[in-house]
Write a structure and sequence with these properties.
Blueprint (H helix, E strand, L loop, with lengths): L2 H13 L13 E4 L21 H14 L2 H8 L9 H11 L7 H4 L6 E5 L2 E9 L14 E9 L4 E10 L2 E14 L2 E9 L9 E10 L3 E9 L17 H4 L4 E9 L2 E6 L1
Antiparallel strand pairs: 1-11, 2-3, 3-4, 4-5, 5-6, 6-7, 7-8, 8-9, 9-10, 10-11
């Protein structure tokens, strides 16, 4: 894998939430559909297939779990009034997609600072480099230190992923992603995104919370105060959580849900 390819994906991860915005008070809207998740991890013999592809396999299992709700969610968010809601379940999956490239380090070739190490069901992976030339992302500057560190525990199906951009010794951009596949179709996921500071508009962090209980899904988008060194409550080893509890303490913006085949959207 080359630094250039990795940088392009990081730019995608770091910019996809820039257009996310909050809404005012609004009515709920419901759309019927099929809410049965398509992923059947147990029936397929587990998440992981060929050794060396565990990171890609984990991403695929997470994406498949959420894809099971694609029809009712897609019907609802196709309404222009609720279009922005679609970002709230897509953005976390886009970030997790980055991990699959580390399964290809041997095939594509390692650059300095890249690593993927596996031992006892624990896979540690990441990348660190300094930006040496102008980027097409206007928020990036020559000399920025870009770093990604991740750990996948294949014994507990738990991913912890953190990406940062450091400038002049100060973190100016940070994303934390945690995902736990508890069992077949049961997923708890949170993404905390602190964007680059801007002199236009407010500087706030973006928080995404997703819970699938095997039959239903809840997705909450929230904001939090600008602080790149933010602390947070981990979801690792906590079991099946409630999305509203996960979002407690954040400024709630909007919520998507599918329950018994019906999708609803709420603007706080």
């Amino acid at each position: 894998m080359t630094k250039k390819l990795f940088a392009v994906l990081l730019i995608l991860l770091f910019t996809i939430t820039f257009s996310a915005c909050g809404g005012g008070k609004g009515d709920n809207e419901a759309v019927p559909g099929n809410s049965t998740p398509t992923g059947n991890l147990k029936a397929s013999g587990g998440i992981y297939g060929e050794p060396g592809h565990e990171l890609s396999d984990f991403h695929d299992a997470v994406a498949k779990t959420i894809k099971g709700f694609e029809e009712p969610l897609g019907d609802l968010t196709s309404n222009p009034e609720y279009f922005l809601f679609s970002q709230d379940y897509v953005m976390p999956i886009v970030q997790i997609a980055a991990i699959g490239m580390f399964d290809s380090l041997e095939a594509l070739g390692k650059d300095e600072g890249e690593y993927r190490e596996a031992s006892g069901g624990i896979i540690e992976f990441g990348e660190e480099y300094t930006l040496e030339q102008e980027s097409f992302n206007p928020n990036e500057h020559i000399g920025d230190k870009i770093k990604l560190d991740g750990t996948l525990n294949t014994n507990t199906n738990t991913l912890v992923l953190e990406a940062t951009v450091t400038r002049g010794g100060t973190i100016v951009k940070r994303i934390v992603n945690e995902a736990v596949l508890i069992s077949d179709g049961v997923l708890v996921l949170q993404t905390l995104d602190m964007p680059y500071p801007s002199d236009k508009g407010e500087n706030k962090g973006n928080a995404y919370f997703i819970v699938c209980d095997g039959k239903n899904i809840e997705v909450i988008y929230a904001k939090f105060p600008y602080e790149p060194s933010f602390t947070y409550k981990t979801i690792v080893s906590k079991g099946l959580l409630d999305a509203d509890d996960m979002a407690s303490g954040y400024t709630l913006i909007r919520k998507l849900a599918v329950e018994n085949g019906t999708a609803t959207a709420e603007k706080y």
